[in-house]
Amino acid sequence: MEFTTQHFIALAPLLITSATIIVVMLAIAWRRNHSQTFLISVAGLNLALLSILPALKVAPLAVTPLLQIDSFACLYMALILVATLACVTLAHAYLGDGGSGYPGNREELYLLILMAAAGGLVLVSAQHLAGLFIGLELLSVPVYGLVAYAFFNKRSLEAGIKYMVLSAAGSAFLLFGMALLYADSGSLSFVGIGQALAATGLPSSLAQLGLGMMLIGLAFKLSLVPFHLWTPDVYEGAPAPVAAFLATASKVAVFAVMVRLFQISPAASSGVLSDVLTIIAIASILFGNLLALTQSNLKRLLGYSSIAHFGYLLIALVASKGLAVEAIGVYLVTYVITSLGAFGVITLMSSPYNGRDADALYEYRGLFWRRPYLTAVLTVMMLSLAGIPLTAGFIGKFYIIATGVESHQWWLVGSLVLGSAIGVFYYLRVMVTLYLIEPNLRRHDAQLHWEQRAGGVMLLAIAVLAFFLGLYPQPLLVLVQQSGLAG
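== NADH-quinone oxidoreductase subunit N ==
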């Protein structure tokens, strides 16, 4: 095929991210400098983010049979790049500079995060099973290294190995499912599969088995019940900025491609598969919330809560008509904001690096009297995750409930309400811990290095955004409406 200027404009976010990876690689080879690597990464990500605007003007455009750049892809590209930018800023604060920082090589962390982000960008614009697999592997493989980055910490190494083994199993299921789908439909493109499935009325048992196996592979990556067993251990073992990346950019990319696959092939979400998705959604909501109740480790608690949140998102996927795509967009944006804020607080509490992260709940006891700003941010994030009105999380939950009611999915709506009620309990428990009065405590805010200050400013901005979207969600709603799959 012939490449025109329009193709290059459409591919700009991915090309700029890839160029940044190469520049960072050469910069590390030339001279190790933590701050320099950080600044190059941030500059590249910001450029990639800005290049989405011209890309929107030429969208929708099929760039090769593998990638489709449209307004849907652009929204999720922007979300992944923003999340990556936040994680890179947190990583800089976390690794620290000078003698008090991280004892190993720092610069490769940025390289791995950028490579994973490039995989996410490929994934959200995939319109072909080959594109989906390439994007997924490019996203997953650097994350194995990221999770085990604190290699001298036994838990981090264990988490990296667990994630690698289970992720490989998920990829095997995914490939087998793709092979069965190809055998049945004779096509690897989403549209071709959709047409082949629609032509036969009900999908054949071979196609359903193929889609089912693909669903297992994607459910592993999204940590949906019963494929969630790796989640709490990996969240706990991974360095805090990496756990933030896993919870946000990584999962958003996988969920976006799942939405595209199910929306383009409506037959995929009919029959037995729809029932399976319903059961997985209810199980994820209930198990995620109930297991989070017993946690005394903040990272594990957020891990279990993310299982529940993707259970809520499955409700809109099962409904798959009316408000569904819009609801998923709104929910993912609000979820990313709140997860970044919560993991950001853990990151700033844990740095400069000293053995293990400050993720035990007792370390947050009376935090308000020591670090009032961080406490304010974490309080807003917990309220938002619980879906309390006047926060961004409430708008997301409201949309998901509206979608469930619109398509008469009463069992799913019931489980969402029950799950949210359980969720309020453990989120409030974290908040109460922050404000407990410890004896002999004097109120002061710890002195921060400049790289931590940058992280702190970003966290305050995230908290303000979570409030702003809760009070005035209109800009977000307009943005998501314009990026429907029809766009």
